[in-house]
Specification:
By secondary structure, the chain is an alpha+beta fold. It contains four helices and eight strands; from the N terminus they run E-H-H-E-E-E-E-H-E-H-E-E. Helix 3 links the parallel strand 5 and strand 6.
Length: 169
């Protein structure tokens, strides 16, 4: 069967599934000995808020939500104080809280949602995507390298140092 993959804004009907996917990702980070997401964030309130603000997006395969990410225009205060230098100073989208369900982990779905977010950005006249991740999140660091994101320096979020990346589209 050929699967159909859709990229769309998340709705409140998706929130339980999104939270389940985030919990799976939180556990994968823990098993990878990563410190990322081990302090009660993200949580169900984060998901609800993302959906309410219309910044939550999902990839669904055959009507089953399998990936979640927040996409935020120009709004990450921590990015103003980078130890390093961004590639650009214009409008940008931030990719936050990207999580892949266990059922599709390791099968290229994180790469696919990044491609869809990049397409969405271009369609809206945004030619920069910024993202940060923990120094010990090997899976995300691998994806960012594969997709030609440029390491720009360090930012500080939630009490921790994070590696910051940018891709010009």
């Amino acid at each position: 069967m050929i699967s159909e993959i859709k990229f769309r804004k998340a709705t409140q009907d998706d929130s339980d599934k999104i939270w389940k996917i985030l919990q799976q990702a939180i556990e994968r980070r823990r098993l990878d000995n990563s410190q990322q997401w081990q302090n009660g964030y993200p949580n169900p309130e984060t998901v609800h808020s993302d959906i309410e603000k219309q910044i939550g997006y999902v990839l669904e395969e055959n009507d089953n939500v399998v990936v979640y990410s927040a996409v935020i225009l120009n709004d990450e205060p921590a990015y103003e104080n980078i130890e390093g230098k961004w590639l650009s100073d214009g409008d940008f989208n931030v990719v936050n809280r990207l999580a892949v369900s266990d059922e599709v982990a390791g099968k290229g779905y994180a790469t696919e949602i990044f491609r869809r977010i990049e397409d969405l950005s271009r369609q809206n006249g945004i030619f920069s995507v910024k993202v940060d991740t923990n120094f010990d999140n090997a899976a995300m660091l691998h994806i960012l390298k594969k997709l030609d994101y440029t390491y720009c320096g360090e930012v500080y979020l939630a009490g921790g140092e994070r590696k910051a990346f940018e891709k010009l589209l």
